[in-house]
Amino acid sequence: MEKKKTGSSRYYFLFIFAVTLIIAGYSGLRSVITKISFFEIDAIKITGNINLETEFLYNLSKDFIGQNLYVISKKDVLHKYENIVRIQDIKVSRIIPNKLRINIVEKPGIFYIKTIEGELFPIDKNRIVLDNDNFYSDEILPTIETETQACELTFGKKVENEFVERVFDLHNTIISEDPDFINHISEFYEFDEDIYMIEANTGYRIVFGNDEIEDKLKKFTFLEQNRTFDKNTIVDLRFNNQLVIRSEVK
Question: Most buried of 38, 73, 142, 149, CB within 10 angstroms?
Answer without folding.
Answer: 142
